[in-house]
Amino acid sequence: MSYTQEIYQLVAAKNPHEPEFCQAVKEVLDSIEPAIAAKEQKYREVALLERLVEPERTVSFRVPWVDDNNVVHVNKGYRVQFSSVIGPFKGGLRFHPSVNQSILKFLGFEQIFKNSLTGQPIGGGKGGSDFDPKGKSDREVMTFCQSFMTELFKYIGADRDVPAGDIGVGGREIGYLYGQYKRLTGQYEGVLTGKGLTFGGSLVRMEATGFGLIYMLEELMNHRGEQLAGKCAVVSGSGNVAIYAAAKAEAKGMKVIAMSDSNGYVYDPQGIDINVIKEIKEVRRGRIKEYAAQIDRAEYVEGKSIWNLPCEIALPCATQNELTLSDMQALYTNGCRVVAEGANMPTTREATDYAISKGIVFMPGKAANAGGVATSALEMAQNSMRFNWTFKEVDERLQQIMASIYQKTADAAMRYGSPDNYVLGANIAGFEKIAEAMLAQGIC
Ligand code: NDP
Ligand code: 2IT
């Protein structure tokens, strides 16, 4: 049995109740197999893969808080510190009722490779809670964030572990978390990224994941001699990533005909007016169906897959496993030829394999959504320098980073004889740097 298959069996046996984690590990191990083959003996001697699939540390804690009606609630809090081999643990916090250890381990594991691809000195981690910010007052969210940080602050620090946002954690939550960290430690340091612009945040961080996704898409299309302008896209989700992906897509002359939330999607044949979505989601914290109530020509659809809509480019930007095999088949049948993942692991393994087998250009999240964490690392750099770059400076760096991620991914795919397999390319390019650092640092 190959070393990678052996390790997968070990992971599956040790983590039987963690399907998302096992899924993420399997995808990586399957695709790095050709890169392992040549160095198998060396890697085996130091149990490199055994160490890579086990987090350095996972902390889980109780988060008690009191709501506006004086009712006490208890949530679970976690931080998975997966790998610090190339830098301090780095990765977002997710607040969503579905959060559990499996989800956070899959996200933390993927983050190691994504962060490696950015070329910046950041390790991999992820954290969060099963707390649901939806429907809560600002005061309740603040109370929760303060309680969460009262435990978390013991484990993080600007050179140790630097959390940021993810699903359910945006500027509001990061502000409350930062305030509590400062109060507990007395340190004004860049311990979280995605901070407000008045207290150490970086320009472009809010837009970065969505913008980065479109920069990657542009890179991809240009290398194929195609343009973004005039292309029709479907974007799932309507949160931070989806909004700024749609905004940049529109700025590049594309037409985004549909967006969604967990209840349904809106279809606008003339192209979604992103300012209306921003107002609904960022200001009112409302539901996507309000778009159709406001815009006559738009239609709201509940209970059907957004991927049934004909489009040329699909950009899943909501959550894991939201794009299944039947969705991918529908996309292909309807003429879609490019899929780039704004979310983390939004495409199931079967759907990914189908896409690649059909020649759909498929750019995985580790490469395509790395613009968010890359800009977080730029925020860390600015905090260390006690200096702020302009919007243009950060945006240009982001574009350069996305172009270099494309190049590393395409080069690795080419080197291993699968020039169109960007899943293989991204996983191998991310892995090579990690493996080299692990070998150099000894058994730890
Ligand atoms: P947000 O919380 O801002 O938005 C999430 C969006 O996805 C919402 O529209 C939400 O709808 C929708 N959604 C969530 N769960 C589901 C579900 N089960 N089915 C359908 N829709 C769902 O999160 P982000 O935009 O920050 O994150 C989106 C994805 O991008 C995640 O996979 C995240 O890990 C990834 N990502 C985020 C980065 C960042 O910088 N924020 C960086 C890189 C990746 P609803 O409001 O109904 O819940
Ligand atoms: O999945 C991700 O890369 C993020 N949620 C962003 C992480 C970060 O540290 O900015």
UniProtKB/TrEMBL annotation:
The keyword Cell membrane does not apply. GO terms for cellular component: cytosol. The active site is at 126 (proton donor). Substrate binds at residues 90, 111, 114, 165, 376. Homohexamer. Belongs to the Glu/Leu/Phe/Val dehydrogenases family. This is Glutamate dehydrogenase. It comes from Candidatus Avidehalobacter gallistercoris.
